Amino acid sequence: GDKVKQSPSALSLQEGTNSALRCNFSIAATTVQWFLQNPRGSLINLFYLVPGTKENGRLKSAFDSKESYSTLHIRDAQLEDSGTYFCAAVGGSNYKLTFGKGTLLTVTP
Amino acid sequence: SVLLYQKPNRDICQSGTSLKIQCVADSQVVSMFWYQQFQEQSLMLMATANEGSEATYESGFTKDKFPISRPNLTFSTLTVNNARPGDSSIYFCSSRADNYAEQFFGPGTRLTVL
């Protein structure tokens, strides 16, 4: 099965609304990263987390290693937030960064 | 953070030919990796590029098909040999300072094989 399971796979939001994305891990994740892939294909680093919480502007992310999940909260969604959000985790003894399948977010006016 | 540059940013090649993708880091990095992403799919780790020695390949990727070189701590190349339409995807190089550090990605090379 998937080592990093992301949900939902797709999401449509109206401008100004809030939502949350989630990743569940079947590996013993030690660090988690969240990325935004923009329509040009570039990967933008959003968060790098050890267990705990970080906030940056309208984005907030949490990583709970004991419960094996991470969340990304988007507040007051804007059109430029559209794109594919990936979470990825390093876990186990191989130190490889494993990606989830992504959440395609569309923000509409 | 680490800045990674890739060249070319896109290419179109004919089936059966070979293509080389270069990746340069703006500082010395311990670990460099190559990832493949098919359209509307996730990123898949292809291999870890080891300085001065052979790359370590993941299941489904071979050195004959995707030879990787890493002559120093800032540079790596990925070659796609005998390219096929099924190799059409985006190839990303990536690096991090150590096993527990944040990982960064280059802008990607979009390859189309006709």
Structure explained in plain terms:
The complex is a heterodimer of chains A (109) and B (114). By secondary structure, chain A is mainly beta. Chain A has a single domain, classed as Immunoglobulin-like, CATH 2.60.40. Helices cover 0% and strands 61% of the residues of chain A. Chain A has strands at residues 4-7, 10-14, 19-25, 29-37, 43-49, 52-56, 59-64, 69-74, 83-91, 97-99, 103-108. In chain A, the strands form 2 sheets. In chain A, strands 2, 4, 5, 9, 10 and 11 form a 6-stranded mixed β-sheet that branches. Chain A has a 5-stranded antiparallel β-sheet with strand order 1-3-8-7-6, with no helix packed on it. The radius of gyration of chain A is 13 Å and the shape is globular. Chain A starts with a strand and ends with a strand. By secondary structure, chain B is mainly β. Chain B has one domain (4-113): Immunoglobulins (Immunoglobulin-like, Sandwich). In chain B, strands 2, 4, 5, 6, 9, 10 and 11 form a 7-stranded mixed β-sheet that branches. A 4-stranded antiparallel β-sheet of chain B has the order 1-3-8-7, with no helix packed on it. The model of chain B has no long low-confidence stretch (mean pLDDT 95). The chains are: A mainly beta (109), B mainly beta (114). The interface between A and B is medium-sized, with 20 and 20 residues.
